[in-house]
Design brief:
Blueprint (H helix, E strand, L loop, with lengths): L1 H16 L6 H8 L15 H6 L4 H24 L9 H23 L1 H7 L1 H4 L5 H9 L6 H31 L1 E2 L2 E2 L24 H18 L8
Antiparallel strand pairs: 1-2
Helix pairs in contact: 2-9, 4-5, 4-6, 4-9, 5-6, 5-8, 9-10
């Protein structure tokens, strides 16, 4: 009877010590990639798509959602089977999981958003080898439980998507005077709005080099706000 009581007490202690779903530690898994450990601006990962698919906000948002979907399911899947994956073939298994999810995303886009699918072109397929996704699978999902892995995926996806959306906002607005295809500055052909006062779109904003400039400005602002991110020499 005494042993049974001790066992019950141990179980109660374990229940009390169980980490809340949104503990401070788990919240940091979401918040850190948004600022202090952003995958694009701090880790410099996934930079290719950040430069290539940010001419229009619609494409940037779709790309961000696609990465969010793939990374969450891939992280959780790899976390669930992490103890079953032989170490020597872990990269192959990760690639198979990610490739299967990317194929689903690609087919859904072709079925429901064909124009966006054509705009994103090969970049949807390149999600398979996106450094952010492979990095999170290797560095986090393989060593953690499904719930933290899901939160880590959400944080890194949002951090990635935030950069894409901000860059695409300025590129589409000042490059074509539109946001999500809606005219903001007026109609260039009919010379209405700002165009009637001599305003002209900035053609540089539609080219890849402008993405580098905008990302650089983003990093500069980020480090001004948080001096701890500045590397000391």
């Amino acid at each position: 009877m005494a042993e049974t009581t001790e066992v019950l007490e141990e179980k109660k202690v374990k229940v009390k010590e169980r980490e809340p779903l949104f503990s401070k530690k788990n919240k940091k898994l979401i918040s850190d990639p948004l600022d202090e450990n952003n995958p694009v601006t701090i880790q410099v990962l996934g930079i290719c798509s950040a430069l290539a698919v940010t001419v229009q906000m619609k494409a940037a948002v779709v790309m961000s959602i696609s990465v969010l979907f793939v990374l969450i399911l891939a992280n959780v899947t790899v976390s669930l089977i992490r103890n079953l994956i032989p170490n020597r073939i872990r990269i192959i298994v990760q690639l198979v999981v990610v490739a299967a999810l990317v194929i689903v995303v690609d087919q859904v886009l072709k079925a429901y958003l064909f124009d966006v699918s054509k705009e994103l072109s090969v970049f949807i397929g390149l999600i398979i080898t996106n450094c952010i996704i492979m990095g999170r699978l290797e560095a986090f999902a393989l060593g953690n439980k499904p719930w933290p892995s899901a939160l880590d995926a959400v944080g890194n996806s949002l951090g990635y998507g935030m950069v894409l959306v901000i860059v695409s906002f300025f590129k589409e607005l000042f490059g074509s005077g539109k946001l999500f295809g809606v005219e903001i500055f007026g109609n260039l052909a009919e010379k209405t709005g700002l165009y009637s006062m001599g305003y002209m779109d900035n053609g540089l904003m539609l080219l890849p080099p402008s993405s580098l400039i905008l990302v650089a400005i983003y990093i500069w602002v980020q480090k001004i706000r948080n001096p701890s991110l500045i590397e000391s020499h």
